[in-house]
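The passage that follows is intended for readers who have already worked through the single-chain material. We present the inputs for a multi-component assembly, then the predicted structure in tokenized form, and finally a short commentary. You are encouraged to pause after the input and sketch how you expect the pieces to fit together before reading on.
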Amino acid sequence: MKKILILLLLMSVFVFNTAFVGAAAIPDDVLVVADNFDAASLDPAVAYEFTSCNTIQNVYDNLFVIDEGEVVPHLAESYQISEDGLKWTIKLREDAEFASGNPINAEAVQFSLQRSMEMGKGPSWMLNEVMSPESITVVDEYTLEIGLKFPASYFASVLSNTCAGIVDPEVVMAHEEDGDWGEGWLNGQSGEAASGPYKLVTWNRGDSIVLERNENYWGEKPNFRQVIIKNVSESVTQKMMLENGDIDMAYKLTPDQLADLEANEDLNVIKGVDLRAYYLGMNVSKEPLNNLKVRQAIKHAIDYNAMIEHLVRGAGNKLEGAIVKPLLGYQEDMGVYEYNPEKAKQLLAEAGYPDGFDIELTGISSTMWKQVISSVQNDLSAVGINAEVRQLNAAAFYELFRNQQLELMLSGWGSDYPDPHNFIHPFGHSEGSLTQRVAYSSKELDDLIEEAAEINDPEKRKELYHKIDRMLAEEGPWAMLYQPQNIVVLRNEVKGYEYNPVRIFDFTSAYK
Amino acid sequence: MKVFLLKRLFYTVLMLIGISIITFTLSHVVPGDPVLTMLGGRGTDEQIEKMREDLGLNKPIHEQYFIYMKGLINFDLGESIRTKRDVTADLKNFFPATFELSTFAIILSIILGIPLGILSAVKKDSWLDQGARIFSLLGVSMPVFWLGLLLMALFYNHLHFLPSSGRIAMFIMPPRDITGLYLVDSLITGNFDAFWSSLQHIILPAFCLGYLSTAQIARMMRSSMLEVMNQDYIRSSYSFGLSEKLIIFKLAFKNAFIPTLTIIGLSYGSLLSGAVLTETIFSWPGIGRYVVESMLFLDFPAVMGVTLLIALVYSLANLFVDLLYGFFDPRIKYDEIN
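Having made your guess, compare it with the prediction:
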């Protein structure tokens, strides 16, 4: 027995002493980022959640990209919009090549866009909404013409989404199986099909994704030879790894960790806007939410600032309209509604509910939403509205939501492409992804929203969005709770990183 | 023996069919739709219809079940809705990690739990016994989540003894894939750097995962050992003047071990299916995290695949334990008890 014990002790000493084989510091030309989910798919036509999209933005280049809030041509060199706004003629750069060495030409762009649309997966709706696969024609080697279904002025912004990322047709189709458009292959080891600054070299599912610099990339070469996206599911673990220098960056840390992180001198904490809005929705097909005064009362009943201060420790911005910062048309302090329980009670009395009423409040079951829900429930009960709370899994929530079966609901909307239309349409248009779930419709708003989507002059467009957003705040079915912030934390060794809310994993300017 | 084995295997197949029906039905009557989970509030009705059709969700449930079972006979578990890969490929990817972790954990539990239980029983009411009992009590009452974070804070963050997460250090290449078990593969290929690194990475999660079983094994071993030690044949052996070592290890242990063996068999199954939390804390790329993420997406092909696989391994492990009974107690005859 003793012998065994001694042997065990000796073994453990040995293991501990040789601790951290290979746990040497991360080399200067490698960047390690922690993420708490594994990607679902790395095929640009399929990817439709953060981890996947953030990752493949580095792998597949777009005709347009977002730089400092502006949509700018990227693979496109120049573009022209016809008088009626229905035809876009896009001229490509002639020096761009895929990692395979094949040229990135008009045919490749046509193929990539058609591929996304034909496959019809998650993100495809945003392309199909504005054009059809047949409407893309190749004019010459480096020129394309795209016909639109209506003169969508935000088309360039849609083209910056990952589902409009350009893949190498020759390489992809060489790996096609049973008419899958090469999805099986792209969703894994797609190194040679890359058009962006990095190519995918390994995907150890559930563990890490390794990207390597694409030497054929036409643009500015990134400083890091390798970027490793490490799947670390627990934010507590992420924080410890960051403090110990085992990762360089984490971007899904939680607000309760903020104080500790900010106090650490080795770390650089960036709180950047997230293009997302959290909202309380009111189904106007349900009594008494069809009453405008009741909706206004609810908007006045919620203590928005307390929510931002206590739930996310300040990592959020107040919202009233649907357009988030820094998109065109965003207004700080719109002044339409704010926390004022007295006014809420008065409005309820005017609406004929001096003693309040009973109602159902539904949200998705997660720790974060649980906090938001109880906070809203408290605020409502303070003005006499007795909300019965339900928390459902996402699948059940969305089913009821789509069938207009929820009364009050809490959820969030994140941008697909960074344009006000992507917020105003879902929140305001009667056919919008959210508005139709709460049975709200206003002909006036519909017309204005359609008009704004077709304006090319930013100033005029901005003015119109101000007007629409104000109308929505005054009469609409939403109490906008807040716009969350992303907490990105980097070790001090990493310099030059520029936060871009739609390209969080853009490391081209960063170095060590 | 042969009859026994055949019978057991036949029952296993029946059980798997039963489980497949239950899991399939459950995962289809859960409210919600995987397509809507994927899209949230977005997408047009036509797009949703098309995606449902692609996944075969618009067929009646019994038809879907028969399609699934037809595939299963050919070892085709269908395609995962979330990862868009064959479930078989996903399982091949994630299962070895969980298998390695659970197996390492159960071995660790046996190595720690049995001596602890025997010592406890032999030196009943001594400080050693009290210490072992406190250790066991903590094991059965401490939440895995908390224990994991505590271990990590201590051994990784403060002492810098052990790494925090993953299966192997970031800049060490995993060994060539033979069995999928890093410890085994690295030994076979003689890659000792990878072996040490994997060993260091597995210690914390395995201990964390196996602590509960260690405690259960130790408690069971202690109580059955105490019971056996009070029996007449042990007293007689003492009176014959046999050495204590011989009595404890040869005469008492073999008889007292049977109930513990049952616990080990059961624990192993629960380790396999219960690795979810441990895998989350230590970012272990195993089947536990895979199945949780799949459940959130209502990805039933994946959930089915994992459930069937775990059920299979669980019943095989228990079959193995049943066979071991005979080794420890030759009085047990297999063909008769059936």
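Commentary: Chain A touches chain B through 67 residues (CB under 8 Å). The CA atoms of residues 420 and 438 of chain A lie 21 Å apart. How closely did your sketch match?
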